[in-house]
Amino acid sequence: MLEMDFIREHTGLVRKDLEKRGQKNKIQLLEKLIEKDKQWRAFKIQADSLRMERNNINKKISDLLVKKEDVQVLINKAKQLPIKIKELDKKISFLKDEINKSLFLIPNILHESVPVGIDESENVEVKKWGCFDKKPNVIHHGLFAEKNNLADFSSASRISGAGFYFLKSDLALMEFALMKFAIDLLIKKGFTLINPPLMMRRKSYSGVTDLEDFEKVMYKIEGEDLYLIATSEHPLAAMYSDKIFDLNELPVKLIGFSPCFRKEIGKHSIDERGLFRVHQFYKIEQFVFSLPDDSWKFHEELLANAEELVQKLEIPYRVVNVCTGDIGSLASKKYDIECWSPREQKFIELVSCSNCTGFQATRLNIKFRKNNSKEFVHTLNSTAIASSRALRLIIENFQTDENTVLVPKVLQPYMLGLKEIPLKDN
């Protein structure tokens, strides 16, 4: 979240940013927040003044008692002060809670290079890579997987519901190959591999994501203060909550490997039997804690890492600078890597790469020491590989006329040298 001091000093900037995001409905929230902050500060000044008055009266009483003078008037006055202070403290506490609730609803400040737009249709293309030739007769990845006995959607739906799947044989092997390929590449670039907890408490979770995600995206464990993680980014960010780094400890570069659990699901009909939007998948995530002055450099580095992974997989893609209406509340700037679907003749998102600046760190109270002061670190995250989407893209882009799927060369060493996935008998 944004610091109240920042909002107080840059109210005009925050208001302008809300307008750019198309969130004019939150301007009223901002105005109420500013008013509550004024009230909070006024009550706090009054309470502090009364505490000082109480201390002064107590000192006078002590001095007069030494002199054996009458102190009853002062004692009577002193008795009234704790009551007034207690009443003010209740107001201060209530307003502080209200201010914190409002702060969680104000989005991050956008980088100046973020394009203004209403929705994803106005994201700005930054670059393209690969060949985007049309491929006739591309079979839907789910149908191809079922036909070749590489997946079982019917059994998964029967025991778990729509949006789940069994991966089988060579396709299951390819999923693990994708994960190991991404991990190996990032370890060579100085990242540390982390297997995080798969559940988090609400307090920790509220520090790393939009509060609306609790209802829209995440699964809650019944009867427990625990949520299944939607991405390893979330526990990685929370891992260092209340931490104060020394300068020489930064940057911290992590690879998160985990299954991800999400309520979202793809469109009906054909995509119910597929891997595009599903409730459970594996993902490799890049995450960095950095000094504020270095975060934009690392944002480009994370994007370059993700591009390298996709290029080595030989999947055509484009990079887009995500516009104000599509960026979400946490990021100051976000790139998406959208890969080419030859079946649908359109781009689909594979990677999101965000610089959240100090937004998450403020919520989680993650700082670094700088001279005699402490400042909030910056946090950055980027997908490396999301297994289900990557498998879909490989099946579509590497289909042959012989009804097989070629294995990307970079994955072959992880698949026992297998060069193609042949037709299987059901």
Structure description:
The protein has helices at 4-9, 11-20, 25-66, 72-103, 141-147, 153-160, 169-188, 202-205, 213-216, 233-238, 295-312, 359-364, 387-397, and strands at residues 124-129, 151-152, 166-167, 192-194, 199-200, 227-228, 244-245, 252-261, 280-290, 317-321, 333-341, 346-355, 367-370, 373-376, 378-386, 405-406, 420-421. The chain is an alpha+beta fold and 426 residues long. It folds into 2 domains: 4-103, Serine-tRNA synthetase, tRNA binding domain (Helix Hairpins, Orthogonal Bundle); 120-421, Bira Bifunctional Protein, Domain 2 (BirA Bifunctional Protein, domain 2, 2-Layer Sandwich), CATH 3.30.930.10. The strands form 5 sheets. Strands 1-10-11-12-15-9-8-4 form an 8-stranded mixed sheet. Helix 5 (141-147) packs across helix 13. The two termini are 53 Å apart.
